[in-house]
Design brief:
Low-confidence stretches: 1-5
Shape: globular
Number of domains: 2
Helix content: 25-40%
Number of helices: 14
Radius of gyration: 21 Å
CATH superfamily of the largest domain: HAD superfamily/HAD-like
CATH architecture of the largest domain: 3-Layer(aba) Sandwich
CATH class of the largest domain: Alpha Beta
Largest sheet: 10 strands, mixed
Strand content: 15-25%
């Protein structure tokens, strides 16, 4: 694994953008939610205490009919040492209700994006902000049934309500297929109660894609733009990207695993999952476990430390599928060039192609510097020139992808 990161200037660029676009001022004006905490019973106090132990919690709470449970889609792989199938299962549990004053949070967003409460779109904010307001249920263990026959216990979750477990899976004839997992919960529990596991054989192609301003217009260089696209606007695809991804999938076949790696927090998972299902190939969405009950945290998560975070998650993907040939796709608004350059140097031969969408359609201070040739030359130091490509029109990528896949075949 990569134990340290080379200085690339990505953090300086992010800090400059935050300063010039006055991110801290916007963050300061947004509320951090303070739930009303009812008096805890002795049992509640014990459960709260044990929740600090995470997976080692000997007394996890069970999912109730008053909870929301999310099961996140994942990718199964063959363990290099045992040859057996396994996968990382991620789940999250929170209360269906919020102990925060929801209307205050909605008004805070509406005020920032200058939306009147009489506007017919006002209820959209209330619906989208819910995952940021629901009380976290730490120390909860979820039960599920994988493939209709394999029982799974997920968790117990940590203090952020999220659990991550590596689970062994029954043997499979081969990769390229989807297997559903269903939550076993009391009647009344809501959320994402079904997930899908994509089985990926050890060899072949794979795709790692950023989300914000790579496949979905987000305006990540502007804090008000982030709030508007997150909580109000209908999500829009980046022009030409769905067609490019369908083209890639037609070349690398249905057995190829896709990973959507974003600096967005897990609060946005249902929103991004729906967007992916409507516009892009099925794949595992990997998000940051930060900013629960925090609107300022949303902006911070999207704009600070993204290079280290993405390199760390790509290391995890490499540990699952080290023999795959990866195509990495990102954009110029944040640290995708630096992160992809770093992972290429860390694992020579793993990444075969890198594509960076040059974002020219948002009015952001400092965007010119982000698109300067010198930036890309520095980010892709020691990466062969025929591996990385900066494009404006997604159609420009097709020949390079076609040639690489043809040579590989």
């Amino acid at each position: 694994m990569v134990t340290c990161y080379k200085y690339t200037g990505a953090d300086d660029m992010q800090n400059r953008t935050r300063q010039e676009r006055r991110f801290e001022e916007t963050e300061h004006e947004l509320p951090d939610f303070s739930p009303f905490k009812p008096a805890l019973t002795p049992t509640d106090k014990v459960l709260q205490l044990f929740s600090y132990l995470g997976k080692k919690n000997p007394f996890p709470r069970s999912v109730t009919d008053q909870d929301t449970l999310w099961l996140l889609d994942n990718t199964a792989y063959r363990n290099e040492h045992t040859g057996k199938w396994e996968a990382e299962f991620v789940s999250a549990v929170f209360s269906q209700h919020s102990s925060c004053v929801v209307v205050d949070a909605v008004n805070a967003i509406a005020s920032k994006i200058k939306l009147d409460e009489k506007d017919p779109n006002y209820p959209i904010i209330k619906e989208r902000i819910k995952p940021f307001l629901q009380d976290i249920k730490p120390g909860t263990q979820a039960k599920a049934l994988q493939g209709g026959k394999t029982p799974l216990k997920l968790g117990p979750g940590g203090r952020n309500g999220i659990s991550s477990d590596i689970k062994g899976l029954p043997d499979s004839k081969g990769g390229g297929h989807l297997v559903p997992t269903f939550a076993e919960v009391p009647k009344g529990t809501n959320g994402l109660l079904e997930m899908k596991t994509f089985y990926a054989d050890p060899e072949g192609w794979g795709v790692i894609s950023d989300i914000d301003d790579t496949i979905k217009i987000t305006q990540t260089s502007d804090p008000i733009g982030i709030l508007r696209t997150t909580f109000l606007d209908k999500p829009e695809v980046c022009s030409g990207m769905p067609e490019l991804y369908r083209f890639i999938q037609s070349l690398v076949q249905e057995s190829t695993p896709w990973f959507y790696l974003s600096a967005s927090p897990y609060n946005l998972y249902p929103f991004l999952r729906d967007f992916r299902e409507q516009n892009y190939p099925h794949g595992t969405i990997i998000l940051r476990d930060a900013s629960w009950m925090s609107l300022p945290g949303l902006l911070t998560t999207l704009t600070l430390g993204t290079e280290d975070y993405k390199v760390d998650r790509m290391e995890k993907i490499h540990s699952w599928l080290p023999k795959r040939k990866m195509i990495c796709i990102g954009d110029s608004t944040q640290s995708d060039p630096e992160a992809y350059g770093e992972i290429y140097r860390a694992y020579p031969g793993w990444v075969k192609l890198i594509f960076i969408r040059k974002v020219e359609d948002i009015a952001a201070i400092g965007i010119e510097a982000k698109n300067e040739p010198e930036r890309f030359e520095k980010a892709f130091k020691d990466v062969p020139r025929d591996v990385w490509h900066v494009f404006s029109d997604p159609a420009e990528c097709r020949n390079s992808i076609q040639d690489a896949v043809t040579r590989s075949s």
